[in-house]
Amino acid sequence: MTSPLRFFKTSFALRLCAIITLTLILALFAGANFSRWSAGKEAKARSLLLVRNLFVDEKPSSLMLYAHPALFESTNELDWPSHLYYLRDRLGSLTSIDALRSTVATPFFDSDSAESTASHTVQVTFASGPADIQITYLRSGDEWLVTQFSILADALSS
Hints:
- By secondary structure, this protein is of the alpha+beta class.
- The protein has one domain (about 5-155): Roll (Nuclear Transport Factor 2, Chain: A), CATH 3.10.450.100.
- The chain has helices at about 5-55, 60-65, 80-90, 155; strands at about 95-105, 115-125, 130-140, 145-155.
- Strands 1-2-3-4 form a 4-stranded antiparallel sheet.
- Strand 3 and strand 4 form a beta hairpin.
- Keywords: Membrane, Transmembrane, Transmembrane helix.
């Protein structure tokens, strides 16, 4: 006959292992979600600052400062300042930043080879009307670099 005390000791050990395993899994998920949340927060702040720098303070250098080489595949690096002046001339002054929609994709485990990306659509109103500014980032080390920048507005289509 088996002693009830022996069953209790085995059962307690199994419960303890299950609790420790569950705690480790929860800590892993919490760490991954915090990393994604902080990455998203940083990229959102960068997008709002970039829009303000380009269209309120008129500093095209802020885009060049955080440009990824992929940004220059569609427009040559030397053509960006004149392109931004052209956009500001067609759109008019920035009157409001209305909303920001974002999608951030980060790897589950941070590693040197894993890439984080963020796509933001900043809904704004210019003197010529509403527009969507689309900005895509790639995380390179500690920096978010702009890989795509485009503006969708009726004032630019005519």
